[in-house]
Amino acid sequence: MASGDDSPIFEDDESPPYSLEKMTDLVAVWEVALSDGVHKIEFEHGTTSGKRVVYVDGKEEIRKEWMFKLVGKETFCVGAAKTKATISIDPVRAFAYEYTLEINGKSLKKYMENRSKTTSTWVLHLDSEDFRVVLEKDTMDVWCNGKKMETAGEFVDDGTETHFNIGNHDCYIKAVSSGKRKEGIIHSLIVDNREIPEILK
């Protein structure tokens, strides 16, 4: 049983690279958007066997058998930047448990709210392929489909431009002041001289 905004998401339309039949104790599934992509975290908790198994993107990260203490925490890393994640197992009532996910010490909801303030994300289709571009506003690092891009920064009259390439396509992220204190800096992705709309969070 999971509760709150950190509750898992179950998706029937995706076929994982492993058999769900073997995952008889699957109790929670979360999707976490990081700079290098969206990661799927799955948790098995065998309340009779004491088993705990954590999968990240279908790969087993933690397996513990015969745990006599059924509550506690499991900590592991997610993504290319090795972001710290912790699953907490808490009792709700007799033989019922609540599973919550924390990312970098924050609840998943708080982490995602903070992340929406510190990143900008665009999705575009080029040369018959989908691309997900993420700007980390605090470091100005640019990620594309899970890879950190080589960039070159340039000062221009009305702000800055961070240049990079996707295949043979010239891209840059333009940063200009909104002129309003609450809005701060506005970031726009330009690909082949065409502005790409940002994903709304």
Automatic annotation (TrEMBL):
Pfam entry (one): FAIM1
Gene3D superfamilies (UniProt xref): 2.40.128.180
Name assigned to this protein: Fas apoptotic inhibitory molecule 1
Lineage, broadest ranks: Eukaryota, Metazoa, Chordata, Craniata, Vertebrata
